[in-house]
């Protein structure tokens, strides 16, 4: 981000301290939303020892779909070797799409429709704004794969105890053809805060009915378009509860800061941002907070939001070490600003490139998008 700031003639402090982002993930031509989702899922299967045959539901939440009709989950079905008796589809609502999929999976299990099987929920996105625009430093790319089972090892959700909020607003959207989003940046921040207040109030009522006080949440993860937004969000909630700004910021250090370490290295991954924050929290603190509840806030522009919570399971600390959640970030390489701009300049041509004509970097052992054959996207 320091390099990008220099290239844009902006003080680096604006990106690093002002927005809270130190690195930004950039997807190359081989890494579309399908490839990102497939690679995240394969890593999950390998590290958690998941058999593809145990999956009965596979949903990809995304804002970066590759087709108006065929869902990413259909590609995943073949790339992951999922069983034929499996429901596959895609969910869209800006950054909320992954949460919509996750809440559906929780209900699928709570209703008993899973009959012992698990759900694979993958949040996959490439966040793109126009070069040189205020949104540019808040881009990112990545996928988070979540295994939802009857016997969770990390976090146990509480079906029914959650708060929703929706409203028709034009804060961020992406018309049918451009790859870059349109955004009313400062308005989007206010829409996020309004949705947070609305969803949180609804959640508090549900928690009270369930017999606990939402103020006992030990940690809180927020949707993270950039780290500073999560800080603003936490301050907003705490000030509504009567804390001073200094008290709210002190509670941020305890309840939120560890969830922003991985997001600050990646940027916005839209649907996956909340779950990257959760991964960051668990990676840093799972053992210390076993048995405690973590609050989760998901926001999708347009808008829909949900506040819900999960309880950290006993043994989560040991399990997190096995998953090595931060490892993928160590496998990246640095792009120069010129390479990043060349990737962006080719963005529109990529989807028409004949097979094996794409420039880019495709590491061995990873699933890659390799071009188009007779209007069909090809993955190897
Ligand atoms: N050193 C340190 N800090 C500095 C600084 C410097 N030299 N210069 C500026 N700053 C600080 C500012 O004070 C400001 O901090 P506060 O917000 O605490 O006041 C911060 O850096 C950002 O500065 P600006 O507000 O001037 O930045 P901007 O107008 O250029 O753009 C933005 C900010 C509107 C968030 C823009 O990046 C944007 O449009 N991003 C995309 C939209 C977005 O992410 N919205 C979030 C809510 S919507 C959502 O969450 C859905 C989603 O994923 C998209």
Can you give a write-up of this model?
The protein folds into 2 domains: 2-153 and 328-379, 3-Layer(aba) Sandwich (Peroxisomal Thiolase, Chain A, domain 1); 155-316, Thiolase/Chalcone synthase (Peroxisomal Thiolase, Chain A, domain 1). The protein is built from 12 helices and 12 strands. The protein has helices at 2-8, 12-19, 33-48, 72-79, 97-110, 185-209, 227-240, 245-255, 273-285, 316-323, 327-330, 337-350; strands at 55-61, 87-91, 118-127, 140-148, 155-166, 172-173, 182-183, 219-222, 293-300, 304-312, 369-373, 376-379. A 4-stranded mixed sheet has the order 2-1-3-4, with helices on both faces. A 4-stranded mixed sheet has the order 5-10-9-8, with helices on both faces. A two-stranded antiparallel ribbon has the order 6-7. It is globular, with a radius of gyration of 20 Å. It binds acetoacetyl-coenzyme A (CAA). Residues 11, 13-14, 17-19, 95, 134-135, 138, 171-172, 183, 185-186, 188-189, 192, 223, 225-226, 228-229, 268, 270, 299, 301 line the site of acetoacetyl-coenzyme A.
Gyration radius (Cα, Å) is 20 Å
Q: Can you list the strand order of the major beta sheet?
A: 2-1-3-4
| Biggest sheet details | 4 strands, mixed
CATH superfamily of the largest domain: Thiolase/Chalcone synthase
- The assigned CATH architecture of the largest domain is 3-Layer(aba) Sandwich
Counted up, domains total: 2
Here the CATH topology of the largest domain equals Peroxisomal Thiolase, Chain A, domain 1
Tell me how many strands there are.
12
Q: Roughly how much helix do the residues carry, as a percent range?
A: 25-40%
State the distance separating the first and last CA atoms: 32 Å
Sketch the topology as an H/E string, one letter per element: HHHEHEHEEEEEHEHHHEEHHHEE
